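Students often ask why inverse folding is considered easier than folding. One informal answer: many sequences map to the same fold, so there is more than one right answer. In these notes we will look at a single instance of the problem. The structure comes first.
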């Protein structure tokens, strides 16, 4: 952008680079799939989410989780956590399924006039470091870059990179104005709301408060997610966890009416 600057009667033109505002969004596997049913995509819920996201004026980088396209087979083939010698077929199947989920989300985005472009970490030189310059170029071209939890091979070993790990790397690099995690619960509760109907929603989480959090799926579940959200908050960006089944709630973020959890 060229800006006119007046200094003691002289006019100078200086070039300043102003980064457009950017928001970072994770589509949790629990809200875009039925996590217990292998490869069960929730198209209508995803469409509702995309319909709200496309109204946001800022640039958006998307990340999606594995849900039942990632976690079921990753666990069956023991591809979880730190690299281990695992079945080649398992690596291929989990990657194929994740690509399919990604393409199905892109299909929904296209139908909502939000052109997304998928980026698979298994093809990144370092699966935990998304190609930032490429992401920048896609955004400049008016596309919505989207990366996702995936399999990887590093130093001859296989493993799973979680969408949550990618959220942290992207947040540290791009310093978005806002980071949101969409899941299938209203926010962070004092206990798992699915197994404890009387669990209480925490509107705000600060510091090292302790919660009862599950570590059920192959990448650590809500326990790992909260750790990552806290690390992102430490970089100075406010993080929100909200229910993707009610995506209209994004418009109340930062207000008293917001239903969800704010992590500062
Ligand atoms: P994915 O990892 O597949 O992308 P996701 O990001 O949507 O999925 P999950 O890892 O499935 O998130 O975590 C969400 C789940 O965490 C909820 O469905 C809920 O049952 C569970 N959970 C456990 N403890 C809590 C808690 N204290 N507060 C909120 N949810 C909790
Ligand atoms: O659901 C895990 O990503 P996450 C992806 O974001 C796979 O933790 C392949 C299980």
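Output (designed amino acids):
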């Amino acid at each position: 952008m060229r800006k006119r600057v007046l200094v003691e009667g002289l006019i100078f033109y200086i070039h300043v680079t102003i980064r457009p505002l950017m928001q970072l969004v994770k589509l949790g596997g629990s809200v875009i799939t039925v996590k217990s049913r292998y490869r069960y995509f929730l198209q209508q819920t995803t469409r509702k989410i995309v319909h709200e996201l496309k109204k946001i004026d800022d640039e958006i980088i998307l990340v999606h989780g594995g849900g039942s396209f990632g976690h079921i087979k990753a666990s069956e083939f023991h591809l979880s956590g730190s690299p281990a010698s695992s079945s080649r077929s398992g690596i291929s199947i989990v990657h194929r399924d994740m690509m399919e989920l990604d393409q199905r989300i892109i299909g929904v985005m296209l139908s909502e006039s939000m052109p997304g472009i998928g980026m698979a970490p298994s093809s990144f030189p370092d699966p935990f470091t998304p190609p930032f310059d490429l992401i920048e170029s896609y955004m400049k071209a008016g596309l919505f870059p989207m990366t996702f939890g995936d399999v990887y091979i590093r130093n001859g070993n296989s493993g799973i990179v979680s969408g949550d790990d990618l959220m942290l790397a992207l947040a540290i690099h791009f310093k978005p104005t806002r980071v949101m995690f969409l899941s299938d619960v209203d926010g962070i509760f004092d206990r798992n709301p699915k197994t404890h109907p009387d669990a209480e929603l925490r509107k705000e989480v600060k510091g090292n408060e302790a919660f009862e959090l599950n570590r059920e799926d192959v990448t650590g579940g809500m326990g790992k997610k909260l750790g990552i959200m806290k690390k992102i908050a430490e970089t100075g960006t406010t993080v929100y966890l909200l229910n993707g089944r009610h995506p209209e709630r994004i418009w109340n973020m930062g207000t008293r009416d917001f239903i969800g959890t704010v992590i500062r």
